[in-house]
Amino acid sequence: MRVQFELNGKPVEVDALPRTHLADCIRHQLMQTGTHVGCEHGVCGACTVIVDGAAVRSCLILAVQVEGSKVTTVEGLSRDDDLTPLQKAFRKHHALQCGFCTPGMITTAHALLTEEPDADRDRIREVLSGNICRCTGYVNIIEAVYEAREAYRSGVGK
Amino acid sequence: MSFVGQPIERIEDLRMLRGRGKYVDDLHRDGMLHAAILRSTIPHGRIRAIDTAAARAMPGVRAVFTAEDIAPGAAKVPVIPVRLMPIEQLEPFVQPVMAKNKVRYVGEPIAIIVADTLAQAEDALDVIEPDIEPLPPVPDREAAQTNRSILIEEAGTNIPISYVATKGDALAATAPYVRRERLSTGRHSAVCLEPRGLLASWDGAKTKLTIEGVAKVPFQSRRTIAKNMDLPEDCIEMIEYDVGGGFGVRGEFHPEDFLIPFMARKLGRPVKWVEDRRENLLAANHSRQIDAELEIVCEKSGRIVALRGKLWVDMGAYARANGTMVPRNAAQMMSGPYRIPNIHIQSTMLVTNKTPVGTYRGPGRFEADFFRERMFDIAARDLGVDPVEFRRMNLATKEEMPFPLATLNLPEKKEELDSGIYEIALDRCLKEFGWSEKQKLQGKLIEGRYHGIAVGCFIEGGAAGPRESARMVLDPDGGVSVFVGGTSVGQGLETVMVQIAADALGLPMESIRIFHGSTTCVTEGFGSYHSRSTVMSGSAVLLAAEALKERLREAAAKRLGCSAKDVVIGKGLAASYGGKSVTLKDVAADGISVESTFHNHRHTYANGTSAAHVSVDPKTGHVRLIDYVTVEDIGHIVNPLLATGQIVGAVVQGLGGAFLEHLQYDENGQFLTASLADYLLPISTDFPSVRAFVLEDAPSPINPLGTKGAGEGGIVSVGGVIANAVGAALAPLGAIPRRLPLTPPSVWQIIQDARKAG
């Protein structure tokens, strides 16, 4: 089936089988491999992307369901010249080790701070509880997202 | 200028944070096919036939192979050799890469399908109809020990081997206090967030096999593949990309490490395989499950006289590559940092119809520390000795270093603690934790929850030898490329190696290019396990830096018209003599390249102390972790930001093992925890207060960096400290934790048992 949507600000058109989930479509058809697949049953959150402003597990949504939507992945939240404030905070606080959960953490945190730039640590923990990290124990991730709030408050988050 | 010792932000982060990391499933090759593996759903059975005709006829299917296709008739299916501590007794128990006559665990490979797309390969799995006659299952220790149903008939027993760790004469030791307990740990796996995967390509014209996506021990895996595929090792290139977590499991040789390259060679096309999460839980190495029956012998003062007893390790169906380390470590590391003069621990391997066991972060050590520290708290309580003083009086002292551990047999292995001032970490931990203040809460019921605190000391082994290499090449632009045999499993190897190289060469970190893991990097590499890479690869980098400077002096001497020893190497590797100097770019044209090897036959032992504060709801059995503090002396610290990150991450993994994780089988050997909704990993809301502190009071005397392996220590003490805190909280009820994990139902159950008994 032909599917048209916006991926990281650019219109894309792809021929996807009805059963292809969005993560496979983005990764293996559109070759944007920043989005990672860790469980394919909606528990780990590594595949989280932003669809029309909401953090969504791309392994639990079919490619055909995003027809006409705006989809943002970690690549769309990144710049060539420098890290974003959220990414800088992750680096400063050593909020990643193997890096596999990181794209899902970045997209989820971005969606949260865009909506709630005043989220406290408990709220950040609650929202990130849908994203599994096997390396860091989360402590540094929470601190990184907490520090990045300032950039979202002042509107320079992205 | 010094980078070593600084909390340097990671190099790796720049790509990983932007979605530019490259993991195995990100790879695509022209003409690439996809593999899927049919796995047994029967725990124990005899294979009568596997009809693959319908699968072969499915759209897109290129090949379907069973063990009969890999090794027809009387031919033997290739096996996974025991990599660590191989001995003759284990040979009958090694795993064939595909089941031929019998299946022995749910998840064992019985066929492989290669198709144009992954979906087509998976569709074809559904139409294979294996005809398997079920045999009586061996689901646990009791069934294994009876030997009524035997997994491996050729061996004639389900008990491959019993190791014994001894020191002094524990069997004869006597003292006024003796207590015996039965304790057990759950079955865990690493559950790396990135599923395992491989991409293999065969170039028949060049007789070249390329395997991408390898991890942990590429050189050792190459040796096994070469032998099994009858190829010279130098015809096989193993390429490491970003690896989404290792923890001992990923990268160790599994059946797929043969099957995927084999199919690529058969078909002459690149073949990719990436496991799904169900396969990961079913088929990747399990670990940890040990039953213990132990006896502690003490003076009334609390001074320990002996620790003796037996361990039974549920190895699953086969002895996999590094499975030996679980029963061996559990026995030899049982004494931890303590002076226990008499030790006798027998550690028995048992085969059962479960996924085979390998190492998982702190192998045998997490289990041993749970057993030992539980015994200590029980003994201290019986004797009326303060739990802190109980530990303090029994810690090995600085003056006793190097301190011998128990000696292990089969093969014999002596072991000693290299250095440490163990009381420093104990005192610092008590201070950071606020022990004296929190002590007032011990066993108190506050707002419906019982509070408990506990403390325990631990050691962490690291730096496995026998050697490691580093190669350095002076690049035309004046930078230096550094190649190491260590591998990255996400721990920050690149940053650490660049810090060490930059300091040793007197260059900025930006001038160093780091390459690791792949078999093209160095002539021989040993990979990353046993918390070895910072010590072993780092020390090799130091040696290579000295060799590079020597070569630089020689090359500069020719240009400067002096002898090599007169050349002064200054800042930025500038070589000068008598006011004249040459640039790096000039001498790089000479093709300056060195390779150096660091040899080591001893181990580093970091040490530490952890403390925990919990509250328990006696109505539900729910345990809340209020605080966890760990302090570890890891010798000379290369990067405190990364070291602390390793420790906190390891603690939280251990908390998973203490509270949540257990790979559950039913009484027939059927696997019940094949999703992340069944096998629970810690999430961000579970354990908010985990604090780690690193010390460097006792540098290792056995390597030039003075550093110690530090990737595993955080996990080692968690099970014991948590169970002791829960035990302390529930002491007023008389409830005694004896098993991990401490899930709400299991804690509720021990409270009920205590009430019935009380």
In short:
By secondary structure, chain A is α+β, with helices and mostly antiparallel strands.
Walk me through this protein's architecture.
The complex is a heterodimer of chains A (158) and B (758). Chain A is of the alpha+beta class and 158 residues long. Chain A has two domains: 2-74, Beta-grasp domain (Ubiquitin-like (UB roll)), CATH 3.10.20.30; 85-153, DNA polymerase, domain 1. In chain A, 34% of the residues lie in helices and 15% in strands. Chain A has a five-stranded mixed β-sheet with strand order 2-1-5-3-4, sandwiched between helices. Chain B has three domains: 24-135 and 195-243 and 250-283, Aldehyde oxidase/xanthine dehydrogenase, a/b hammerhead (Aldehyde Oxidoreductase, domain 3, Alpha-Beta Complex), CATH 3.90.1170; 290-463 and 602-757, Aldehyde Oxidoreductase, domain 4 (2-Layer Sandwich), CATH 3.30.365.10; 464-599, Aldehyde oxidase/xanthine dehydrogenase, molybdopterin binding domain (Aldehyde Oxidoreductase, domain 4, 2-Layer Sandwich), CATH 3.30.365.10. Chain B contains 20 helices and 32 strands. The mean pLDDT of chain B is 97. A seven-stranded mixed β-sheet of chain B has the order 3-7-1-14-11-12-13, with helices on both faces. A six-stranded mixed β-sheet of chain B has the order 10-15-16-17-9-19. In chain B, helix 10 (365-383) runs parallel beside helix 19 (718-729). By secondary structure, chain B is α+β, with helices and mostly antiparallel strands. Chain B starts with 12 loop residues before the first helix and ends with a helix. Chain B is globular. At the A-B interface, helix 2, helix 3, helix 4 and helix 5 of A face helix 1 and helix 17 of B.
Q: What is the secondary structure topology, with strand pairs?
A:
The complex is a heterodimer of chains A (158) and B (758).
Chain A: E1 2-7, E2 10-15, H1 22-29, E3 48-51, E4 54-57, E5 70-72, H2 85-92, H3 102-115, H4 121-128, H5 139-153
Parallel strand pairs in A: 1-5
Antiparallel strand pairs in A: 1-2, 3-4, 3-5
Helix pairs in contact in A: 2-5, 3-5, 4-5
Chain B: H1 13-16, E1 33-39, E2 45-51, H2 53-56, E3 61-66, H3 67-70, E4 79-80, E5 95-96, E6 102-103, E7 109-115, H4 118-125, E8 129-134, H5 141-146, E9 162-167, E10 177-184, E11 197-203, E12 208-212, H6 218-229, E13 236-239, H7 256-267, E14 271-274, H8 277-283, E15 290-298, E16 304-314, H9 325-332, E17 342-350, H10 365-383, H11 387-394, E18 403-404, E19 407-408, E20 416-417, H12 422-433, H13 435-438, E21 445-446, E22 449-462, E23 467-474, E24 480-484, H14 493-505, E25 512-516, H15 533-560, E26 568-569, E27 575-577, E28 580-582, H16 584-588, E29 593-599, E30 604-616, E31 623-633, H17 640-659, E32 690-695, H18 713-716, H19 718-729, H20 744-757
Parallel strand pairs in B: 1-14, 12-13, 16-17, 24-25, 31-32
Antiparallel strand pairs in B: 1-7, 2-6, 2-8, 3-7, 4-5, 9-17, 9-19, 10-15, 11-12, 11-14, 15-16, 18-20, 21-22, 22-30, 23-24, 23-29, 26-27, 27-28, 30-31
Helix pairs in contact in B: 6-7, 9-10, 10-19, 14-15, 17-19
